[in-house]
Design a protein that fits this description.
Layout: H1 2-16, H2 18-92, H3 99-113, E1 116-122, E2 137-147, H4 149-159, E3 166-173, H5 175-180, E4 184-194
Antiparallel strand pairs: 1-2, 2-4, 3-4
Length: about 200
């Protein structure tokens, strides 16, 4: 215990000296500053730096989202401009064969122009199941019609103007009808096109 008393006495003597007192206060101040710097200020700086980076990232994301929103608005405006045209395009080049609509159009047109349809046949197409894998498909139609030259001519001119992409591939007339000068019989091979949707 005496050793401790002696140390204590020496410390009290040193403590009374002004140099020791000032250096002790300086040491205590340095220790306190280092402690708070390490425990409070550095983590605060790290948090601030992290928040700045997060803010910058959020601003970049916001800029990208704004750009996408502008693009979507532009697409919406463009779509609104052409939405009516899309209906016409879908009629001209439907997604499926729509053979019944094409058959109805041919029948209606024949009645309007006074042409009689003697026979008709549709080529192969998918009723149910997988869609055609080609980019553009065609529905072949073969019909035999009867009427005057002018009626057949009017029928053909109107046929290529219907709201369906259609081509006339072949036309042949019966030679006997041409010689007699009466009603003509014509055989037609048509192709109505459609655009299958690929999934």
């Amino acid at each position: 215990m005496r050793n401790y008393d002696r140390y204590y006495q020496q410390i009290r003597v040193w403590d009374r000296q002004p140099k020791v007192r000032v250096s002790g206060l300086i040491s205590l101040t340095i220790f306190t500053v280092a402690f708070f710097l390490n425990m409070a200020i550095l983590p605060t700086f790290k948090t601030i730096a992290g928040l700045k980076k997060e803010i910058k990232d959020q601003q970049e994301v916001e800029a990208k989202l704004t750009k996408k929103m502008v693009g979507l608005k532009t697409a919406e405006v463009n779509y609104a401009k052409v939405v009516n045209d899309l209906k016409l395009i879908n009629q001209v080049l439907p997604e499926k064969e729509e053979f019944e609509r094409l058959a109805w159009q041919i029948q209606w047109l024949a009645n309007q122009k006074g042409v009689k349809i003697n026979a008709g046949r549709f080529g192969e197409f998918n009723l149910v199941g997988e869609a055609d894998s080609s980019d553009q498909a065609e529905l072949v139609v073969e019909i035999t019609i009867k009427g005057s030259y002018q009626q057949i001519r009017d029928f053909l001119q109107s046929l290529i103007k219907i709201d369906r992409l259609i081509t006339i591939k072949e036309i042949s007339f019966n030679k006997q009808d041409l010689q007699t000068g009466g009603e003509l019989t014509a055989s037609l091979k048509l192709a109505g096109f459609y655009l299958p949707i690929k999934e």
